[in-house]
Design goal:
The chain is mainly beta and about 200 residues long. It has no helices and 21 strands. It is about 0% helix and about 50% strand. The termini are far apart.
């Protein structure tokens, strides 16, 4: 029952006297088992693939506006790796989405992490995406006011959308001698008359 082992290409894979195969390079070869008694043979078709060792992205941080797009380009090493397929995911698709081709789209203001994961071995690389969103409207949550001299009132500004990147506001008045306003929106009635407060 003795078997003689051989390979058709020792540069790709070798086999010892016990049938243990050791791979050396990517490619195809045949492992042959030959009966020393009758010469009958059996073959094993062997395909040796080049494993990946790393993944890198063309960008690791990106700032985009809502509705804009950019593409993530992965580099999988080594360059002759057989399986370079990459799977993309977003940590928060409500902020930024990514498709199967690595195209990222800003959805609303915020920060999301785009992860690129190799299909083989599960190696990952990531890109932090900050989506900036402009303010679409700002309103004062009070209509016409009537105040006595010396009275104060805190006004509130509502900035939309809530996901806007910069929701800071600046307060001003048309006539500070009548109504003054501080940086926080607190107004003071200083004299008789009418004034308009702006945010």
């Amino acid at each position: 029952k003795d078997i003689a082992w051989s390979t058709t290409d020792e540069d790709i894979a070798t086999v010892d006297e016990n049938g243990k195969v050791t791979t050396h390079a990517a490619g195809n070869c045949v492992i042959i088992a030959t009966s020393t008694d009758s010469g009958i043979i059996a073959k094993c078709q062997l395909t040796v693939t080049q494993p990946i060792t790393g993944i890198y992205l063309n960008v690791t941080e990106k700032v985009i506006l809502k509705g804009k797009k950019f593409i993530i380009i992965p580099t999988v090493t080594p360059s002759d790796a057989d399986n370079k397929n990459v799977i993309y995911t977003s940590s928060d698709p409500s902020i930024a989405t990514v498709d199967n081709n690595g195209v990222v789209t800003g959805v609303k203001g915020g920060v999301a992490i785009i992860v690129a994961k190799t299909e083989e071995r599960g190696l990952i690389a990531s890109c932090s995406v900050e989506v900036q969103e402009f303010v679409s409207s700002v309103n004062i949550e009070s209509d016409d006011l009537y105040m006595h001299i010396g009275d104060t009132k805190q006004l509130q500004a509502k900035v939309l959308p809530e996901s806007a990147t910069n929701n800071e506001v600046t307060w001003s008045t048309s006539n500070s001698a009548i109504v003054s306003v501080n940086s926080k929106g607190k107004i003071t009635a200083n004299n008789v008359g009418k004034a308009t407060v702006y945010v």
